Amino acid sequence: MKNIKVLGPGCMKCIQLYENAQKAAEELKIEYNIEKVTDIQEIMEYGIMLTPALVVNGEVLSSGKVLDKEEIKKLLSK
Q1: Residue 78: pLDDT above 90?
Q2: By three-state DSSP, how is residue 4 classified?
Q3: 7, 14, 53, 55: which one is catalytic?
Q4: Does the global pTM surpass 0.85?
Q5: Cβ(60)–Cβ(30) under 8 Å?
Q6: Distance CA 40, CA 34 (A)
Q7: Which segments of the chain are extended strands (E)?
Q8: I want to staple 63 with a disulfide (CB 3.0 to 4.6 A). Which of 9, 11, 41, 48 is the partner?
C-alpha cells in the first residue's frame, strides 16, 4: 500500500496535485491511502520550503510544483 500525502495550505495548486495523485494511483490499480495535509507544523516537519508537495511513504518526491498524472504515475511505479 502506498501512503500518499499532498502538503499545502489548500490552494488551487494543492487541490490539483491531490486530484492528479488520486487519478494516477487509480489508473495504476495500486492500493493507496491519500490525504491532504494543511497543518503548517506538520508540513514543516518534512523540511519543504515550497508547496504543494507530494510525499509517498514518508519520502518527499516533489515540492513547489503541480506534477501531472503521468509524472506521478512514474514516481508511484518505482
Answers
A1: no
A2: strand
A3: 14
A4: yes
A5: no
A6: 18
A7: 2-7, 32-37, 53-56, 59-63
A8: 48
Distance CA 50, CA 63 (A): 6
| Residue 3: DSSP 8-state | E
pLDDT at 56: 98
Q: How many residues does the chain have?
A: 78
14 has catalytic annotation: yes
Over residues 15-60, the pLDDT tens digits come to: 999 999 999 999 999 999 999 999 999 999 999 999 999 999 999 9
Sketch the domain layout of the chain as residue ranges: 2-77
4, 7, 11, 12 from 58: Cα distances, Å: 8, 12, 22, 23
Which residue among 3, 11, 45, 57 is the active-site one? Answer: 11
Asked about 11 being catalytic, the answer comes back as yes
Reading the block at residue 53, the C-alpha cell is 508537495
The phi and psi torsions of 41 (rounded to 5 degrees) equal -60, -45
